[in-house]
Amino acid sequence: MSGVHMAATEAAVWTAVGVCEDIPAREGRVVHVGGAAIAVFNLGDRFLAVDDRCPHKGGPLSDGIVAGGAVVCPLHAWRINLESGDVERPCAAAPAVRTYTTKVEGGVVHVALTEPRR
Amino acid sequence: MTPRERLVVVGNGMAGIACVEQILKHAARFDITIFGDETHVNYNRIMLSSVLAGEKASDDIVLNGLDWYRRHGIQLRLGVRIVDVDPLGKTVTGADGSVTPYDRLLLATGSSAWMPPIEGIQKDGVFAWRTLDDTRALLERCGPGTRAVVIGGGLLGLEAARGLQVQGCDTTVVHLMSTLMERQLDADGGNYLCGKMEDLGIKVLLGRTTTAILGVDRVEGVALSDDTCLEADLVVVAAGIRPNVDLGRKAGLYVNRGIVVNDHMETSSPDIFAVGECVEHRGVCYGLVAPLFEQAKVLAATITGNKGPVYIGTVEASKLKIMGVDVFSAGDWSGQSAEPVRFEDRALGVYKKLTIRDGRLAGIILVGDTSDSHRYMDWLRSGEDLTPRRRHLLFPPPAADAGLDVAGMPDGATICGCVGVTKGQIIEAIHERGVNTLAQLKDETRASTSCGSCTRLCQDILKAVAPEFAEEGPRVMCGCLPFSQENLRDILRSQRLKSVQDVLDIYGNGLGCEVCKPALSYMLDMLWCGDHDEDRSARFINDRVHANIQKDGTFSVIPRIRGGVTSPDELRRIADVADKYQVPMVKITGSQRIDLLGVKKADLPGVWADLGMPSGQGYAKGLRMVKTCVGTEFCRFGTQDSTAAGIEMERRFENLFTPHKVKMATVGCPRNCAEATVKDVGLVGQEGGWQVVVGGAAGKSVRKADLLLTVETTEAALEASALFFQYYRENANYLERTYDFVERLGIDKIRKDTVYASAPVKAALLDRLNKSKARSYDAWQEGQAPVNRTQFSGISAPEQVVTE
To answer: Taking Cα atoms as reference points, which of B403, B399, B379, B401 lies closest to residue B390?
Structure first.
């Protein structure tokens, strides 16, 4: 697996966060970088990264069950879209989760830290 | 802050409560008191026909339970009829002598059955049919062999007749006019309807009046205008309704046929309002439910000082609620200048007639097939020009798929005519409020809570729009996998499917979700006993890290303490672990175990290793514990060694997965100190043996366990438990507790399939259980041999790489 998943913005600082094999398919893992907890998910064909904090009660999204392109928080089953960070359930009006652009290079997952997509 | 005004509502029926519900949506300004002369909370009067027909119980038709009144701080006075109003002193007087002051008065007194002046109509056995009490009284009197006569062949009379006939009565309808439901149907429609009623076995006598009720004290028969007599044991009078205007008159209001109200729902007095069947608006008194809701919205605005919305009348639609006899009528179909468009098929018993005036729909009559009534009603309400549709008026081009009907409707289209809910509002509820089931939709919007005729449409919209639509009735797993669990178990078994992802790819949407994935994980494990492609990503986090996730993302650790019996050595180790890992809370659980709460995920392997005890599965859908009392070992009352039995029981069933958590208990005597009769499986010791009980609960619901079997030996008790345990594993739906499972199947069936089953069946059950047991292991061993490098940790970079 290689290549940039989303177009990186110019100011992106790519930070290596882990080895691809350390995240089993359709699971997430947390990584602590620069004081932030980021949940990185292996969707089989790509890696996606969001803040590891559910906007509802702060649940660890990295421990959730992956449902297609979304993750379901283990605490109260809020469903977060991993591409957009939007809350799909219970309501789209809830604040979105911050997402991070990712890329894979040499079997290592990188996230773009300074320039979030939203 | 201004003090609250006192609002007194006379009438606890659908109209009064619809108003109060609407008023509560505005800013609070009233202390509300409601008087009802019936002794029931607000119920769905339209559904009385279903109660009479035995399709529903009286509890099923309650619309607002007592908790609703309580929640809104409403004073409810039931069984008190208001007999007088003093509009100057602003008080109402009850039949009980009570005098209640008001600032605003709302009259929602409804209507009463009209009793025509027939000789003998006061005799015992003559009923009006208006209320739940009337219905109950009728139900008491009717039954197989009872001869019933219904006077009146309108909506109400026919529904009454059908209800009585379903209860076994020999039923005859006597109707004054030459066809049935002549106010709603033309002569042809009435004839079709008459044929259908007669097909059901109800006799119909047309063009006759009832001249006298015969009998000494009790009804014995009725005399008709053609000089014939009918024998009868009970008579229901359904000759029409009259608005209850008495209080309006006493209050000095302008009263015509009903209490006259204007478009703002105001009466002739500024402090008194009226709504529902007791009012007359623009010369019309309504007798159906839809106008109530429209009036209630306007009235609520006016009475709360938000005057503005106006009520301009309702396009009334009538629907006969007799199963198998579909009749729908709306608008004006009788006009002279109208052009009829008709279809009829005697063999099918279908008659449809639309009347068109100036290119627009004016009236609708449907008998035998009312499936298009919503489309026609929208044309009627909107008054749209139908000229371009003239070729397809009665038969639309066939719908290509189920979603089309729904897709063809504008957002403003009314779906629930009773409560006034549009397609747009339903879609909003689905998206904004997470509505996925019909029950949730009813809760959120009240749609489909009244007559229920829009249920299908509501369901179609849910199906088309809701992301996680869940059908009630045959329940499917979830949106990803549209099969019932029973169906899925068969599929997995017969197709020999062994991985969650395969099942999702072949039978589902390929994605899966938090509902289906853990369920499939369980089913595969149960069916293939470990001989399958295990997918940890399909498990809930608790079953990936073998600990119970807490609100702050830490975990709880409960070691196995079989039968609640521990040792000083174990207790020391637990204490040392709590110190070493700075465990924030150490708690004795309700299951005779010790819980270490607030353990970090990364510490789990260390905690387990230091404890040196197996997993208590306090996180899993599996056997949690066997709670025991001391039994014969120490207790002076004990009749069985419940402690030893419990420890052995725990050994046999631990480390296996189950559809939901399973709690067991053993007690040495019927004093039941370890509460075995409210556990999923319990052994109750008695002199000379054990009672094996199953399906008990003391959680969300409390249920006393059912007796499965009485046996003489501990081994026999454990075998009976094993049979039930494996039967539950194989046949319960995922997340179905034993208490729901036992209720769903019934203890008789469970006994037949387990303890009373033939020897080979029992042996096969035990064999499958043993096979699973042989493959099971203590999950905490994974602390030393994780299934992957990051099972209990996060990830980290191999080295810091920063590129611009």
So the answer is: B379
Task: Check if the interface score ipTM surpasses 0.85.
Answer: yes
Q: What is the pTM of this model?
A: 0.53
What DSSP designation does B391 have?
G
pLDDT in tens, B441-481: 877 777 887 776 788 788 888 888 887 776 655 567 777 88
Percent of chain B with pLDDT over 70: 97
* β-pairing verdict for B259-261 and B279-281: parallel
Q: Could you tell me where the DSSP H helices lie in B553-666?
A: 568-580, 604-611, 642-653
Calpha distance B749→B724 (Å, rounded): 12
B-contacting residues of A 51-70, CB under 8 Å?
57-60, 62-69
Residue B364: the pLDDT is 94
Hey, which bits of B218-294 come out as E strands?
Answer: 221-224, 229-231, 234-237, 241-243, 259-261, 272-274, 279-281
Say if residues B476 and B483 touch (Cβ distance below 8 Å). Answer: yes
Chain B 412-441, residues with CB within 8 Å of chain A CB atoms: 431-434
pLDDT (tens digit, 9 = 90+) per residue, B144-194?
Answer: 889 999 999 999 999 999 999 988 899 999 999 999 999 899 999 999 999
For residue B148, the cross-strand partners are B171, B234
Select from A18, A26, A60 the Cβ nearest to the Cβ of B796.
A18
The separation between CA A70 and the C-alpha centre of its own chain, rounded to angstroms, equals: 10
Contact B434 A90 (CB under 8 A): yes
β-partners of residue B595 are B587
| DSSP annotation string for B412-463 | T-EEETTTTEEHHHHHHHHHHH---SHHHHHHHH-TTSSS-TTHHHHHHHHH
Sign (positive or negative) of CA dihedral A23, A25, A27, A33: positive
